[in-house]
Design goal:
Layout lengths: L10 H8 L5 E4 L6 E4 L3 H19 L5 H16 L9 E5 L6 E4 L3 E5 H6 L3 H16 L2 H8 L2 H4 L1 E2 L2 E2 L2 H4 L7 H6 L5 H17 L5 H14 L16 H19 L8 H8 L3 E2 L7 E3 L2 E4 L4 E4 L5 E4 L4 E4 L5 E8 L4 H11 L3 E6 L8 E11 L6 E13 L2 E10 L3 H12 L3 E2 L3 H4 L4 E7 L4 E2 H7 L7 H8 L6 E2 L4 E7 L4
Helix pairs in contact: 3-5, 5-10, 5-11, 10-12, 11-12
Length: 493
């Protein structure tokens, strides 16, 4: 949350994009077979063009010209030999520590700095790049969008977000769903195959893509529990690794390619100095609290709630995913005016307003209900909201919690705990926190990875994490001259 700006979603545009009328048949560019499609290619491109600014607002761009140029060059080269070279392909590096890559309709592909940090050579990157391009060329993104409805866009844990409430800003959890789209097993397997073919055609050894699944498998059980999109529909990535390795061998034999590139040193040199993990400037979580050094505020997070931080907002989800909290910048600098605007625009019924200050800061807190109507108007459900509007530092911040009205009492204490904890940040150790960075080191030889990492100054409790980052085991002996990753800066001691 480097900045509190937000891109307002046009519900009308989205509705028109998803409701294109009669079914039509189109030829799938990859399979050559006819399939039912609700979305034309031009509409697909328009959807991607409308999603792109939302993705950037949600995640932000990671400014690294050299790495961005590499991503764009390889992406355009691969798109040119794909089945859909005519699309307006776009490849962007986004500022998120989450290990993920994803695509939206129309040829818009995104890689997080988190996944770039976990690649250990160009070939691994190329395989995943081909996988994402494959989702677009095979029209998986279009098929997935065709199954979505406007109501489902705001769906989380069975709770449908009111369109009126969504009009207050980006639909709650909308960005989360957009950035972590799940495809079926067949689509993922087809994209694996296309990733192998595309990366092989531009000269990379696709067997390295297979090896990257080991890293993903280890990450899925790690302390950070950052499960990438690739694992969302595949419970056994180890089996997937075997399949991809076989596909790579077949592709290399069929294409008659030799001297395929891996590009280990060149890739590691590119990511040397890249930010790793959370960037404290954008806010960070520590010991059950969220801290934002640049905007100088803090608030507490209920136990077991999951937090997603983005440039536009902070979102927290209850363990059962049936209650959500959101923090973002409200319009104006007056908390009372912001509260009244929220009541009117969200159509809050039975609104109760309190003007009690929160930790010495002027605040207005609203409790009330928002009625959600089904699209045909035949059914309705009531969402209870509790929102505090706090004036601080020339801004007005909105902290909002919600759940279905019958369930709200189960989450009210947690919501009140967070809302009432918003306060000024004065702790110098939090205000001056620096980001960790990847540091590329060359092995002198005769040491295990564990010994080399300890010698680089890495703390004992970070060894397993950085072993995964390197795609190695701690007991592995490093030959002389081998480049490997360690970490520097931040909170490392």
């Amino acid at each position: 949350m480097q900045r509190f700006t937000f891109h307002k979603l046009s519900v009308l545009v989205l509705l028109l994009s998803l409701s294109v009328g009669l079914q039509t048949c189109a030829v799938n560019p990859v399979t050559g077979k006819r399939q039912v499609s609700f979305i034309s290619e031009q509409q697909e491109i328009q959807m991607g063009q409308s999603y792109d600014p939302q993705v950037i607002a949600e995640m932000g761009l990671y400014v690294n010209p050299k790495l961005q140029q590499f991503l764009s060059q390889k992406g355009q080269a691969m798109a040119a030999i794909s089945e859909r070279p005519q699309l307006p392909w776009s490849f962007k590096l986004v500022d998120s520590p989450v290990v993920n890559a994803f695509a939206v309709p129309g040829g818009f592909v995104y890689f997080t700095r988190g996944i770039m940090a976990h690649f250990n050579n160009e070939a691994q990157f190329a395989g995943v790049l081909g996988h994402e391009i494959g989702h677009v060329t095979a029209r998986h993104t279009v098929q997935q969008q065709s199954r979505q409805t406007l109501a489902q866009i705001g769906l989380i844990g069975g709770m449908v977000l009111s369109p009126e409430l969504a009009s207050q800003g980006e639909g709650l959890m909308q960005g989360m769903q957009l950035l972590f789209l799940k495809f079926g097993r067949d689509a993922e397997s087809q994209s694996d195959q296309l990733g192998v073919i595309y990366s092989t055609k531009i000269g990379y050894d696709a067997k390295e893509m297979a090896g990257f699944f080991t890293t993903l498998s280890r990450l899925s059980g790690g302390a950070e529990n950052r499960v990438p999109t690739f694992l969302s529909t595949h419970p056994d990535p180890d089996n997937r690794e075997v399949t991809v390795r076989q596909l790579a061998q077949q592709a290399q034999a069929n294409l008659g390619t030799t001297n395929l590139e891996v590009g280990r040193n060149s890739y590691l040199q590119m990511i040397d100095g890249m930010i790793y993990g959370e960037d404290p400037k954008q806010g960070f979580v520590e010991a059950g609290s969220f801290y934002h050094p640049e905007l100088r505020f803090q608030f507490k997070i209920p136990g077991q709630w999951q937090l997603l931080n983005s440039p536009s907002q902070v979102q927290m989800v209850s363990p059962d995913q049936k209650s959500v909290m959101q923090m973002r910048l409200a319009q104006g600098t007056d908390q009372n005016a912001a509260a009244q605007s929220f009541i009117q625009e969200a159509k809050v019924q039975g609104a109760q307003v309190s003007n009690q200050a929160i930790n010495g800061l002027p605040a207005a807190t609203v409790l009330g209900d928002v009625v959600q109507q089904s699209q045909d108007g035949s059914q309705s459900q009531t969402i209870r909201v509790l929102a505090s509007f706090i004036s601080y530092g020339g801004n007005t911040y909105m902290l909002l919690g919600m759940a279905l009205a019958p369930d709200f009492s189960r989450y009210q204490r947690d919501i009140e705990y967070t809302l009432s904890s918003f306060a000024k940040l004065t702790d110098a150790s939090k205000l001056n926190r620096q980001a960790e960075q990847i540091k590329i080191v060359t092995s002198k030889g005769g040491q295990t990875l564990q010994q080399a990492l300890l010698a680089s100054g890495l703390p004992q409790d970070r060894l397993n994490e950085v072993a995964i980052l390197n795609g190695m085991e701690l007991t592995q002996t490093l030959p002389a001259g081998l480049m490997f990753k360690t970490l520097t800066g931040g909170s490392l001691r």
